[in-house]
Specification:
Structural class: alpha+beta
Largest sheet: 4 strands, mixed
Helix content: 25-40%
Distance between the termini: 51 Å
CATH topology of the largest domain: Translation Initiation Factor IF3
Number of strands: 4
Order of helices and strands: HHHHHEHHEHEE
Strand order of the largest sheet: 1-2-4-3
CATH superfamily of the largest domain: TusA-like domain
Shape: elongated
Number of helices: 8
Length: 193
């Protein structure tokens, strides 16, 4: 290997946005131009919080881009070979209203916009709120963008979700603990300490 060149991290769907921009600062404009949704990454507070937890795969969902296209554009701009083949569009989750959604069953409303504006991570608050739901109850989450990492985390915990983009900076995500879900979250003893 040439001693003047340092090997840089690979660009994969699992690469976190913050890691990408730290390793390849020259890709910032390339990334931001891919989708109007990514313009929010210019905000240092959002970049500090969201960029640390969001993978490129999740960012592609937020931006409505096929992950293969996103990765290959970034790799090309970084002087690497493209390696992901084309597939269908990114799964954005259900677009039609799910059968479990009934506004009368919304028992919790969380707005994470103020938390994000303070540069804090809302994950703990949101997951605590979701864990307090009884089967069939719904939590309405309001965010300035599609919170793909949070949706993925909730899905792993047995929650179903339905994101609705109401405006470019306003997304509501409805989470439901579907009756009969095999996953039951144990009490969090850490919350008691």
């Amino acid at each position: 290997m040439d001693q003047g060149k340092k090997k840089r991290a690979p660009i994969t769907p699992e690469t976190r946005v913050g890691e990408l921009l730290d390793a390849y600062p020259e890709l910032e404009d390339v990334l931001l131009e891919m989708s109007p949704s990514f313009a929010k990454l210019r905000n240092p507070l959002l970049r500090k919080t969201v960029g640390k937890v969001t993978t490129l795969s999740q960012a592609a969902r937020v931006g409505g881009l096929p992950i293969e296209r996103m990765i290959n554009l970034l790799r090309t701009a970084a002087g690497m070979e493209e390696s992901l083949g084309p597939t269908d569009a990114v799964d954005q989750g259900p677009s039609a209203k799910p059968s479990w959604h009934d506004p009368s069953r919304i028992t919790k409303r969380l707005d994470v916009r103020p938390v994000l504006e303070r540069g804090e991570k809302p994950v703990g608050t949101v997951m605590s709120g979701l864990n307090s739901l009884q089967p069939g109850e719904i939590c309405e989450l309001t965010a300035p963008f599609l919170p793909a990492p949070l949706i993925d985390m909730a899905k792993e915990k047995g929650f179903e979700s339905w994101p609705v983009t109401e405006a470019p900076d306003l997304v509501k995500v409805y989470f439901c603990k579907v009756p009969g879900s095999p996953y039951e979250e144990p009490e969090q003893l850490v919350d008691l300490l």
